[in-house]
Amino acid sequence: MIKNYVIKITVAALTAVVAATCFSGCSQNSNSTSTVSDQTETIVANGSQMSSLGEFSTTDINDEKVTQDIFKDNKLTLVNVLSVTCDPCMEELPYLAELAKEYRDKNIGFLGVSIDMDSEGNPDKSTKEDFKKLIGDSAENINIAYLDTELMTKIFAETNAIPYTFFVDENGNIVGERYTGFHSKEEWKSIIDKVIKNADL
After folding, report:
1. What is residue 110's predicted lDDT score, i.e. its pLDDT?
2. 136: how many CB neighbours lie within 10 A of its CB?
């Protein structure tokens, strides 16, 4: 059994975040005991799943520009939508950072996408040090980018929960299943190995 921590984000809460509140109205569910396979995200808010992240342009925790070209560096990239205000996200991030080091020679990239906003509705750069502390010496293997308008529209048209994780190929196309909630390092390793096998890498 695993911790199935999920932060639910309502449309109202999402609007509030963009305006100023950094998802402070989110609720947390820590009572479920579902299996990993049970946590595959199949709910689509507007009736259709996105097939690609398309074009976007944002910055990361090192103030470097990040675009869809980041996916060209690997055959597959794990994309994890998270926030510093989300305890399950922060508990899970160090595991993903460790796995990023372990899978760096297997053409698997790791990208975190922070939904944290400041009082002006812009990416909250004050969270940079929080993220850097959690990823530690894995910084060269996992990057944390801030949500831009294009990514926000696409991701939150599909889900209202974080952490929310999926895989994309080198062209930015979404591959396989979506995953919500907290997963342990061992569970993520099992999921990643399954995705690699199915992608025939």
Report:
1. 97
2. 12
